[in-house]
Predict the 3D structure of the following.
Amino acid sequence: MTRLLVVRGPDDPAIGEAAAILAAGALVAFPTETVYGLGADGLNPEAVARIYAAKGRPATNPLILHVASVASAKALVAQWPVEAQLLAERFWPGPLTLVLPASAAVPAIVRAGGPSVALRCPAHPVALALIRAVGQPLAAPSANRSQHLSPTRAEHVASSLGEAVDLILDAGPTAAGLESTILDLTGDRPRILRPGPIAPAEIAAIMGPVDLWKGAVMAGETQAAPGMAERHYAPRARLVLVAPGTGLSSASDRVAYVAIGALPPLAAGVHGVLLPMDAEEVGSRLYALLHELDDAGFDRILMEWPPQGEAWLAVRDRLRRASAKEPA
Ligand code: AMP
Ligand code: MG
């Protein structure tokens, strides 16, 4: 059995224990406000290599370094532009990841060999206390096997990674439930690589218009940003997206139907789930719901497309990827 320690807050002794494990080069899964992360000492290449092995993550997919302060972020970049300063003042700690030119301090394995580094300061007291206790940035992707559903609870980590993680810190369900917004500040114009809890308009309010990477809004642009594979975040059941109100009049397999706003007519035996017309709430519950439907053994999950509009951008992005076909 994987070791799991319940953490009641930033002063819990479990954090010291976890920090010692990380300092020794091993892996600890910990809560953030987005999803659970699989952490390693981000400046120790052997420890970071264990993350790739545990997840089965391709070496071409770079990692986010988690820091507890702007000062630590600055030590990891070659330049800290005024935009980064303004965004960090407004959104850190919080679910915004900044991609910037890396300094020599960042090991190549963290960057997947590229020239830039992704940085974020998580808004979870346990995550911040852990980073401070280790005294190093923590490399931490989502704590799940590569391409699978991200974990929003400690149990999800245990069932996805099993023995591959040395310790799991359990602080209950995560709040935002979707991965951070990733903003690339290395080009001529700022560009959102992955939509997330912080909307483009919130970023634009600080620094003017931002571009949205095409792959973040439509299918088939898989290679233009590192690691943004088309199929991702996927449940085991086949996820099929349908138009709102479609319903289901007959089914010969075990099907769950997830509606948003109102439940349409469903054949007897189809398991109906109703989510509210509220992007933030659907974002926060989405992965836990898909985990639950997977665990219940459904063959198929039909889910209604969320509405157009920026508020639903991150949820639509994850659903599009989660329903993408497995590469041949
Ligand atoms: P995960 O931590 O699994 O949610 O994934 C982190 C994602 O951040 C990766 O899949 C990349 O898409 C993105 N990322 C990390 N580092 C960089 C970087 N240096 N440049 C661009 N994107 C990055
Ligand atoms: Mg992930």
